[in-house]
Design brief:
9 strands; alpha/beta; 17% strand; 294 residues; nine-stranded mixed β-sheet; 10 helices; 42% helix
Length: 294
């Protein structure tokens, strides 16, 4: 049996060096404890994904776990797509084409082919604003799936929220949100596309948040590598590696921490988008002579 987590965030961006070291030490402890075979470092494109991969790889040295290079990029349409690469150098080259808000999902297939990437559509119906199934029409969503390699059938970031809502007295006021959470935790078959691999991922942003990951009984053939193995579009099953906290206080703490992280990422994305628009306007202004240049 092999275990894979194809959506994971070291989440060390903008942290002081001492805090980074502590975070990475905790991540190493949890990796050693869980014994997951392969973890894809898929930090957001606006949070220095190359550094995240390098530091996470260093933290995993000597462990059973192997770190795979990747990035969770956001398209001009605001849709998240994960790109996985064979090597660190491939990731470096790939990032040049995946600058935040500067590529289109219409070009997903071409970018993947040009950069040698495998692609995953993560959390297609999550309650967030960057989910493909929420942004695109049904037809466009199906077209997107035809261009990708994997669809994420389970995203663990919804586990704590779903549990909290299911136990809330006000749960009947959140029917739409619960439908999206259910789809995020177990994507219906008719939303999985045709011929795609199935990713079961944690989307963990903090140590200890890997609850369910992907499991397969298939083996990597002698002479093949893990990237070649993933090219076969494996349909992963569920493997529990840790359990959710039962203590309500701990559960609420995790929820607040996650909410804070989501808000920070939203602010960073908005800043990147605004900065990009300002740069575009300035370029157009200079080109058309709207601004004088000394």
């Amino acid at each position: 049996m092999l275990t894979f987590d194809l959506h994971f965030h070291a989440n060390i961006h903008r942290m002081p060096e001492r805090s980074k070291a502590l975070r990475l030490q905790k991540l190493r402890w949890h990796m050693e404890r869980s014994g997951i075979d392969y973890i894809a470092s898929t930090e957001h494109a606006y949070k220095r994904p190359l550094e995240a991969y390098q530091r996470l790889s260093e933290a995993a040295e000597g462990l059973k776990t192997e770190i795979l290079p990747g990035v969770e990029a956001v398209s001009a349409e605001g849709i998240d797509v994960i790109y996985l690469y064979p090597t660190e150098d491939d990731l470096k080259r790939g990032l040049e084409d995946l600058q935040t808000f500067r590529w289109s999902v219409l070009d997903l297939g071409r970018i993947a082919a040009d950069t040698g990437a495998l692609t995953i559509v993560p959390h297609p119906f999550h309650i967030g604003k960057s989910s493909a199934g929420n942004i695109l029409s049904r037809r466009a969503y199906k077209q997107l799936l035809r261009m990708t390699d994997y669809i994420e059938i389970h995203n663990g970031s919804a586990l704590n929220v779903e549990r909290r809502l299911s136990r809330s007295r006000a749960k009947f006021f959140f029917k739409k949100a619960r439908v999206k959470l259910d789809k995020t935790l177990n994507l219906p078959l008719n939303d999985r596309g045709e011929g795609l691999g199935w990713a079961v991922s944690s989307d963990a942003h903090y140590p200890g948040e890997q609850y369910l990951v992907g499991r397969t009984d298939r083996e990597i053939a002698p002479g093949d590598d893990v990237f070649g193995f993933l090219k076969q579009r494996i349909r992963f099953d569920y493997q529990e590696v840790s359990t959710l906290a039962e203590d309500p206080l701990m559960s609420n703490t995790h929820l607040l921490r996650s909410f804070q992280g989501v808000m920070k990422e939203a602010l960073v994305k908005e800043y990147v988008k605004t900065k990009g628009r300002a740069g575009t306007l300035a370029t157009l202004g200079l080109y058309y002579g709207l601004f004088q240049v000394s």
